[in-house]
Specification:
Layout lengths: L5 H12 L4 E5 L2 E7 L3 E7 L5 E8 L6 E7 L3 E7 L3 E8 L7 E10 L12 E4 L8 E7 L6 E9 L4 E6 L5 H7 L7 E4 L2 E4 L15 E11 L6 H16 L12 H14 L4 E4 L2 E4 L12 H18 L4 H9 L4 E2 L4 E2 L21 E3 H16 L3 H20 L7 E3 L5 E3 L12 H16 L2 H11 L13 H18 L2 H16 L1 E2 L16 E2 L8 E2 H17 L7 H17 L32 E2 L17 H10 E3 L6 E4 L3 E7 L3 E6 L6 E7 L9 E5 L6 E2 L3 E3 L2 E7 L3 E6 L1
Antiparallel strand pairs: 1-2, 2-3, 3-4, 4-9, 5-6, 6-7, 7-8, 8-15, 10-11, 11-12, 12-15, 13-14, 16-17, 18-19, 20-21, 21-22, 23-24, 25-26, 27-28, 28-31, 29-30, 30-36, 31-35, 32-33, 32-36, 34-35
Helix pairs in contact: 3-12, 3-14, 4-15, 5-6, 5-7, 5-15, 7-8, 7-9, 9-10, 9-11, 11-12, 11-13, 13-14, 13-15
């Protein structure tokens, strides 16, 4: 056990020396309320007699006095007072038959108040009330990710706690005190939970009320003992809590305009392009003419751009130019594509480890090959040829490293340049999954069983890693797809469990709150996903690829009994992504929040090319650069969320995954929404002038056709709020 603070020792003694002020039973648990010298506690005793104390109110340096308490059917209310402030605490029970508690605390200073210290709000105890010496924290908040803490009692194994702090509610406190909510939920055993950001210069004004905690706690008598149980339970608990937390209302973004703006920017803005050997190539960042062209960048735009124009039924010159330039990345002596175009490798400035000739980042080898495979499946022969010419090199590298890749290596000698992401953490842990995904794509393309066998061998390297499979969000999403495909092919539940672990790693790295302080007031952040475990910002390209990969995951899962929690979480991630991710475009952001200089290239605030990076509200965004290879955001979203109706001018937009979209001859269509029936999504009929006289009728397509009334009518069309996991029928006349 870690060393204890005097506050924890004192709390233990005071809790053991008092009788509770009141007791409430809840779904096999007992909740006892205690008032100690400086804190109000809810001590929960579980079915196995383990205890956890939750500090609902705290005052530093003075006595906390109870002024009033009310015991109501669904909640308990407390009014408290200290020398410097008053407190209101509401402890509620969202569902009478579920072991979930929710406490909100509001502080009102009596004087301009600084907060130089704040205790954390969770203290695990034994049956006798002593400090629980051993436990396991499965995950906790990193940076500005969700305010989550998932922990289990180890000795004795009395239960687990899934804790969610609704950080959105505390934004006004941060705006006033100029503090950040990064790394506020966590701690070291046994002093855990949320700690209010401390203030140094900007006090809370007197007489104004601030929410200082909004905590949801799911209590369980179960203890998870292996990585599969932990990650599966994490997904189930997160989905359970998600249903009851406050969620912002998504606002429709008209991607049909954005996609054309993006194409125009790519076409005419010289900062998007460079030349090598007389051929145009996309820069990685706007106006970065120093760095040689990269194959990943070309394919990162080419694939979604091809998807968009396939959806549109048209051709585009950029597609032809990008296809024609791919072969130049092939190096005959290696018999493989390389990262940097060989003709310009001499321009690498060696400022970073990977900016050297022949140096390969492990995931970077497989990513372009995966995109080549997807293009090959669309009938692009040049992509198929380049893929098959390079695939044996990728397999040889996998064999050399025994499916356990380092971070960087030399392509010609396979000498390891950087073995681990950090000491003791190993290399890029999700590359075995990305490699498996590549092998499965080539297997589908060729029918050769050796590629399926390669995928199985690589997948074994993911076993037992749990959350630690996650290295980079998009590659972990591809890994989830691959494991699901292997499960479908083999029937082996190990692969299905591995797909869950991949997804748990992704949902562990999301931001389930809105950063409404500082610059965060100008863009939504709810359900943003971070690209790396320790990344200090969210990133446009990785978000787009996670979105596309998880959409495909659900298509792959049709007919498979996957966890209901996965249906719920992926559907909601998709909903918020398609309404939030547009805010990477600097054109939608105030200029004062944009970085004045970028690490790479320049920022053009009028260009519809996304920034790479969105930061915490007190920081500027775009510090890394304006990301040309993130231009595929709009190209990826339109074909997945907009649906043309043959022989009609109107089209359908929906911000959820859907299936079974079928248009009938009798002026009707049917579709099935994904997700969970307890949640809703937006369906819009995007009408033209010629559709104004049409009468539309939307209903649930079951035995009883329940009519759905429009939520609103606006310039874009008719908007409906429809339930998830339902069959819908749209008719018009």
């Amino acid at each position: 056990m870690n060393p204890l603070s005097s506050w924890t020792i004192t709390a233990q003694e005071e809790l053991n020396s008092q009788e509770p002020r009141l007791v409430r039973k809840l779904s096999g648990h007992t909740i006892s309320i205690y008032l100690t010298y400086d804190s109000l506690w809810a001590v929960v005793t579980g079915p196995k007699s383990g205890k956890t104390a939750f500090r609902m109110a705290f005052t530093a340096g003075s006595e906390l006095q109870l002024i009033q308490q009310k015991e109501l059917a669904d909640r308990l209310f407390f009014l408290l007072e200290s020398v410097s402030a008053t407190y209101e605490v509401n402890l509620s029970f969202p569902e009478a038959d579920q072991p979930i508690i929710h406490y909100i605390t509001t502080l009102t200073p009596k004087i301009p108040l600084l907060i130089p210290f704040w205790c954390r709000d969770i203290l695990p105890l034994t049956k006798s009330g002593k400090i629980q010496k051993e436990g396991c924290v499965h995950m906790q908040q990193v940076g500005t990710r969700s305010g989550l803490l998932f922990m289990s009692m180890a000795k004795p194994q009395t239960g687990s706690i899934f804790y969610f702090q609704n950080l959105t509610a505390i934004a006004e406190y941060c705006e006033t005190t100029r503090t950040s909510l990064a790394d506020t939920v966590g701690g070291k055993w046994p002093e855990l939970g949320f700690s209010l950001p401390v203030t140094q210069n900007d006090p809370l004004p007197s007489g104004k009320s601030f929410i200082i905690t909004d905590a949801f706690v799911l209590l369980s008598g179960e203890v998870q003992n292996n990585s599969t149980e932990i990650t599966t339970q994490f997904l189930n608990h997160l989905a359970r809590i998600y249903l009851i937390i406050p969620r912002p209302e998504p606002v429709y973004h008209h991607w049909l305009d954005t996609v054309e703006n993006g194409i125009s920017g790519l076409t005419v803005h010289k900062g998007c392009w460079t030349f090598a050997g007389g051929h145009p190539y996309l820069n990685a960042y706007v106006s970065d003419y120093k760095t040689p062209a990269e194959i990943m960048v070309q394919l990162a735009v080419l694939l979604p751009l091809t998807e968009y124009y396939d959806w549109k039924g048209e051709q585009n010159k950029i597609i032809s130019e990008l296809k024609d330039g791919l072969r130049a990345f092939y190096m005959d002596e290696l018999k493989a594509v390389v990262r940097w175009i060989p003709a310009m490798e001499h321009n690498l400035d060696k400022s970073e480890e990977q900016k050297r000739e022949r140096i390969m980042d492990s995931w970077y080898l497989h990513h372009p090959l995966m995109n080549l495979a997807r293009l090959a499946q669309k009938g692009v022969e040049a992509a198929k040829e380049l893929l098959l010419d390079s695939i044996d090199y990728a397999i040889n590298v996998a064999h050399h490293f025994k499916y356990d890749w380092p971070v960087f290596y030399r392509m010609d000698t396979l000498e390891v340049v950087k073995a681990e992401t950090e000491p003791g953490k190993g290399g890029e842990s999700d590359v075995p999954g990305a490699y498996a995904h590549l092998m499965l794509e080539v297997w589908k393309l060729t029918g050769q069983r050796r590629y399926l066998d390669e995928a199985k061998k690589a997948a074994k390297k993911l076993e037992g890693r749990g959350f630690d499979i996650f290295y980079q969000a998009n590659n972990t999403a591809f890994s989830a797809q691959a494991m699901l495909q292997l499960y479908k092919e083999t029937g082996d539940n190990t692969y299905l469990d591995l797909s869950y672990s991949c997804l748990a790693g992704i949902f562990k790295n999301v931001q389930l709150w809105d950063c409404n302080y500082g610059n965060g007031k100008y863009f939504p952040t709810f359900f943003a996903v971070f690209p790396l475990n320790d990344a200090p910002y969210t990133a446009a390209y990785e978000e787009q690829e996670v979105y596309a990969a998880l959409t495909e995951y659900l298509k792959e899962a049709e007919g498979v009994a996957i966890l209901p929690s996965i249906h719920l979480l992926i559907a909601e991630f998709i909903r918020y992504t398609v309404t939030r991710i547009c805010y990477y475009y600097p054109t939608l952001l105030p200029r004062k929040m944009l970085a004045r200089t970028a690490k790479t290239g320049e920022i053009d605030p009028d260009l519809w090319i996304p920034l790479e990076d969105i930061h915490d509200g007190w920081e500027q965004s775009g510090e890394v650069g304006q990301e040309v290879y993130g231009a595929g955001i709009a190209f990826a979203i339109v074909p997945r969320q907009y649906f043309n109706v043959p022989d009609e001018e109107f089209m359908i937009f929906i911000d959820y995954p859907i299936g079974k979209f079928k248009v009938s001859k009798n002026r009707s269509l049917t579709l099935a929404t994904g997700g969970d029936g307890r949640l809703s999504c937006t369906l819009m009929i995007l009408t033209s002038e010629n559709d104004k006289k049409k009468k539309f009728s939307l209903s649930l397509n079951g035995e009883d056709e329940i009519h759905i009334e429009p939520k609103s009518r606006n310039a874009n069309g008719i908007e409906f709020l429809v339930p998830g996991n339902q069959q819908l029928l749209l008719q018009w006349e």
